[in-house]
């Protein structure tokens, strides 16, 4: 199309130049040209839609053409100004501003819509990884094996076969047959004993026949479907202790136990009369059965917070009344309690109560309030620099010193806020700078970041807030901000700190009122199969990609996740492509999604659901 001839614009009766007539004519001509281009058929397919989407000119060329038209408009108007004496300066300013605004608007739209070189790379990545909306990923419960898909996806990896039905309750590092081959001295056989690589099971642990989704909390606290744990031995062996009853097709837990003849609720009421449980000062509790050996009590002292409580119920407490029922002599029980009292004094614990078969001690606030006893036969203080280095370490016969304080009334390590205020208060370890790489500012930034992430998760999986997922795990918890963002009476989160993490942040997690533990994800996790409803992973596979096979980690995730449980994996896109191929071979239904920041962010999110199947469908 030839360029229009430039002529002087006409002059109105009032003497003003009709400067916009040329611009209007140009717009009409461009509009007609666009309509002709849009209506021209595709010579190969005669598809109007195909012509629009596929044969469209490059966006950069289109932008140049549009800009050229605007420049011609401005140039023409400029010539008109030279030919017209009554041209006002304000009109020129309007045209220039209009042209600049149009230019930057088109430039921004071009960059945002994405068809440049970088966007072609992004589109290729999205095509390879199938990043998209998640219309086909269902998080609902379907209790029937008939919902099992007929194939495991298009992955080239050979599908994993189900393990034999005998492995329904398999826990790799606490396997009973293996444990019984180790010495019983100091309960060594009860420690973790993981199988070597050649003995690992590279198959899928099946759920028992008839497995169904557990009852939602709080009903799930009192009732468990028999099909999920088809073992009646405890109902017989512990019948007189009121632990569990088999009723119809469920187990009912009435809240009794060996030391709770009146029920656990009554027991907790007794504790609350001495311990400020309801005030939010006591957030986490550890239930132990460690005997009377001083070394075990030293380990309790290590993990107990300054001012925390140690509760002992059962033998030998209350021996004067219960010695006959325990079938033990008075002298034996008396000596046992004397040993406990002696070690408690060596640890500078203060006994605050002994009543109705329950004894309670409180730990010292600091080391100034009680100097280490000189008559301690085990003597010595532990090395404070390695107090968190506990993975596969033997317990030492030493006392863990507390952080230094300025007065006998000061709480070593810092005073904690009551819960739930404690959850977002600045932890003392962050305030005093004892966690390398973290400051008050970075702590708050981490909280804000994970609030954003969790908000995005809830848009995709709208069941996160419904109580569907009670038991949740964060495989690489960091500061515990994912768990904090999820905080609700409906859920609890196990925060795991990998043993190979650059920085140990487990202390911060506990200071926030959360719970957690160390673990090496190249090994089996110390828990029963089908424990968790949802597993969250952040950069785990990047962290372990040179340590062990992805299959080792994913198979363990599958073992501890219940059927129809959910998985959220956040990592680099190249890592997630490999993970997704393996996951598809494990009967997981997966979808890869973009980062909340958009498709240009190299980090992606893999959402998955473990499909329902049981041993019933796998036995030959």
TrEMBL record:
Topological relation to the membrane, as annotated: Single-pass membrane protein; Single-pass type II membrane protein
GO molecular function, one term: methyltransferase activity
Superkingdom of this protein's organism: Eukaryota
Family: Belongs to the methyltransferase superfamily.
Region (Disordered): 25-44
Entry-linked InterPro entries: Put_SAM_MeTrfase, SAM-dependent_MTases_sf
Protein EC: 2.1.1.-
Any one cellular-component term (Gene Ontology): membrane
UniProt key word Transmembrane helix: yes
Organism of origin: Zea mays
Subcellular localization: Endomembrane system; Membrane
Protein name: Methyltransferase
Transmembrane segments: 60-80, 92-110
Any GO BP annotation: methylation
Keyword vocabulary terms for this entry: Glycoprotein, Membrane, Methyltransferase, Signal-anchor, Transferase, Transmembrane, Transmembrane helix
């Amino acid at each position: 199309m030839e360029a229009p001839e430039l002529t002087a614009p006409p002059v109105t009766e009032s003497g003003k130049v009709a400067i916009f007539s040329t611009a209007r004519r140009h717009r009409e001509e461009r509009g007609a040209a666009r309509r002709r281009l849009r209506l021209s058929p595709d010579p190969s397919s005669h598809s109007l839609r195909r012509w629009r989407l596929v044969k469209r000119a490059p966006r950069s060329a289109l932008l140049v053409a549009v800009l050229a038209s605007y420049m011609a408009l401005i140039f023409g108007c400029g010539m008109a100004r030279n030919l017209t004496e009554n041209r006002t300066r304000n009109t020129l300013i309007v045209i220039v501003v209009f042209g600049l605004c149009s230019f930057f608007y088109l430039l921004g739209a071009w960059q945002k819509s994405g068809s440049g070189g970088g966007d072609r790379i992004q589109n290729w990545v999205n095509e390879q990884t199938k990043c998209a909306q998640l219309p086909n990923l269902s998080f609902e419960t379907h209790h029937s094996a008939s919902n099992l898909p007929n194939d495991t996806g298009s992955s080239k990896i050979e599908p994993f076969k189900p393990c034999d039905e005998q492995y329904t309750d398999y826990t790799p590092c606490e396997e009973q047959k293996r444990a019984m081959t180790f010495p019983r001295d100091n309960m060594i056989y009860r420690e973790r004993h993981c199988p070597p690589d050649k003995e690992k099971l590279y198959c899928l642990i099946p759920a028992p026949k008839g497995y169904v989704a557990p009852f939602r909390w709080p009903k799930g606290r009192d009732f468990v479907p028999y099909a999920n744990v088809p073992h009646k031995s405890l109902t017989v062996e512990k019948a007189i202790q009121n632990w569990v009853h088999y009723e119809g097709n469920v187990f009912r837990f009435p809240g009794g136990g060996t030391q709770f003849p009146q029920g656990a609720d009554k027991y907790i009421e007794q504790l609350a009369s001495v311990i400020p449980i309801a005030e939010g000062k006591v957030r986490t509790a550890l239930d132990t059965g460690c005997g009377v050996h001083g070394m075990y009590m030293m380990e309790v002292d290590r993990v107990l917070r300054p001012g925390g409580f140690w509760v002992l119920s059962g033998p030998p407490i209350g021996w004067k009344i219960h010695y006959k029922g325990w079938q033990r002599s008075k002298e034996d029980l008396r000596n046992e309690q004397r040993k406990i009292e002696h070690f408690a004094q060596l640890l500078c614990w203060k006994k605050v109560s002994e009543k109705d078969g329950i004894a309670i001690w409180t730990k010292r606030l600091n080391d100034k309030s009680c100097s280490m006893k000189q008559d301690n036969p085990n003597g010595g203080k532990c090395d404070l620099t390695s107090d968190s280095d506990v993975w596969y370490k033997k317990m030492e016969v030493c006392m863990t010193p507390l952080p230094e304080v300025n007065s006998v009334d000061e709480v070593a390590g810092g005073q904690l806020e009551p819960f739930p205020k404690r959850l977002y208060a600045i932890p003392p370890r962050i305030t005093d700078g004892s966690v390398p790489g973290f400051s008050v500012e970075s702590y708050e930034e981490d909280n804000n970041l994970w609030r954003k992430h969790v908000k995005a998760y809830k848009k995709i999986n709208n069941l996160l807030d419904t109580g569907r997922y009670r038991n949740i795990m964060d495989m690489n918890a960091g500061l515990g901000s994912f768990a904090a963002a999820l905080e609700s009476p409906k859920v609890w989160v196990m925060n795991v700190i990998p043993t190979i993490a650059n920085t140990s942040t487990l202390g911060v997690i506990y200071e926030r009122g959360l719970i957690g533990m160390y673990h090496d994800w190249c090994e089996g996790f110390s828990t029963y199969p089908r424990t968790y409803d949802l597993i969250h992973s952040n950069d785990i596979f990047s962290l372990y990609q040179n340590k062990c096979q992805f299959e080792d980690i994913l198979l363990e995730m599958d073992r501890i996740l219940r059927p129809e449980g959910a998985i959220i994996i956040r990592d680099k896109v190249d890592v997630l492509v490999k993970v997704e191929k393996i996951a598809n071979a494990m009967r997981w239904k997966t979808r890869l999604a973009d980062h909340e920041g958009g498709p240009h962010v190299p980090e992606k999110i893999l959402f998955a659901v473990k499909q329902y199947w049981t041993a019933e469908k796998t036995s030959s």
